[in-house]
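Hi R.,

Here's the chain you asked about this morning:
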Amino acid sequence: MPNVSYEPGALLIDGKKTQIISGTIHYFRVPRELWRDRLQKAKQCGLNSIETYFCWNLHEPAEGVWDFSGNLDFEAFLEEVAALGLYAIVRPGPYICAEWDNGGLPPYLSTKPNIRFRCLNEPYLAALTRYYEQVLPRLVKLQHTHGGPVIAVQLENEYGSYGQDKDYLRYIRKLHLDAGIDVVLFTSDGAGDFFMQGGTLPECMMTLNFGSKGPDNFAIGHTFRQDGPDFCMEFWNGWFDHWGEEHHTRDAADAAQALDEMLRAGASVNFYMFHGGTNFGFTNGANCLSEKGFEPTVTSYDYDAALTEAGDPSPKFFAFQEVIRKYRPDAEFGTPAPSRKLAYGKVKLAESAALFDNLDRLTARHRTAMPETMEYFGQNFGFIHYRHFQPGPLAENDLTLPRVHDRAIIFIDGQYRATLYRNEERQSIRLTVPPEGCLIDILVENMGRTNYGPLVGKDQKGLPDGALFWLQAMAGWDTWALELNDLTNLKFGPFRQAANQPAFHRGYFEVAEAADTFLEFPGIKGVAYVNGRNLGRYWNIGPGNTLYVPGVWLKPGRNELIVFELHELNGGEATLTDAPNLG
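And the predicted structure, written out as tokens:
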């Protein structure tokens, strides 16, 4: 009977001591058509296992509405892992961090009365239990003990960085056991006393997360626990980027040396990330911990990993492969070929659709007394547009937005007045209202919910504290919840743009052969779509200047490009090039 267990110093698979060399690939960050390609390349590097999170927020986009289809079919992903003869490590959350919107928690949870996240709180546990009732039965049959690839399942995620509710962790453990999970259950935390005290359970295998000094970190772990193997569940061999920062890179030789130290000591290792993929659409998260304030993550999740965002082997791939050869000499190594890439050149943006002219075509209008958040309207991603008529006359005073989550563009009678960003001290404009009154429009962009720390689950988007003129709460608002996941109802006319007037711009380009390509940032700030697929956000503050366009999303013949620009395009054309620019 297949089994998986652990003892001091070793992970046992079917009774045999096994050193796991694993790599993280998130099924939800990679187009389904490319899963097998990325997994094959991981095997060519010498890996014997693949690790992935599950993303609760996409699997339950609205309360009680479940989606495990298409790119969210994790069963099919794990079956691909099995078909290649690889093991799988699964981290179903509920919280995953992962630089992913809200750390994977569904936004609707924040509207629940008296909810407290990631603890033994009844409203939270009720939703959590329903989630596990959906995912765990799907996972049971994929366990190694049932002939599948899954050898280990994580409870929660880096819980010691958040809390210390052991009863909560044991509740989760019991749900797993009751569902039939009989492979190794484990926790993962940083190698520090607070992390290990808060996040571990004596009943579960303890793993650690770090980027270097493996033997030292394992020694710290030994002072706390002796009853399990040394396992680095997140070997941070690269890092992620925030808007406005430098692109993060790590020397391949340095990362390979850190890997060699751990493998030589007999430890198991999981690369975080082995292949990062992309935060397509609006799925990126944000940090909100330091003096820097709110730090949203960029669209690319390249992570300076062994496989690039486009799935090409990087110098790290070959540096890691050279190390792994020493410990798995009989593995099926190979040399992956880079993906085919083409520069499709200039795309003329021949048509435009102004946002203000298309609000009612994009979504329904809601009337409320005060500005409500995205979550109030059941909205997960995108933008939210508020409109208020202010009677006059009123002398000059402050129009104040007490909390902007996250970036608000203000228009008075259709004319641009200001942009207020969450990190800025100024959250108001001066306004005089004439006798005939004025129309106030406020377009707010959700730039990604906090994914790490005490604000996870609480980062509601829009105008959480409404709007004030002087000290008066402004009442009577029309609101459009702009998910922007379906643009088919837009009404386009001839190309036209005006500075700081948000608009959709459309063009077409011909493809003889579909290949990967990269869209150069076409303007100051906005979102780009190819054939209805949301490629993600762009912002000219960088880092980088391109968005990845998977070739599997293109088709022979005519292809559509739509750019939603908030401020001003670089010109009447966009450019598709054959090389990424992430730095």
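The CA atoms of residues 103 and 451 lie 4 Å apart.

Let me know if you need anything else.
M.
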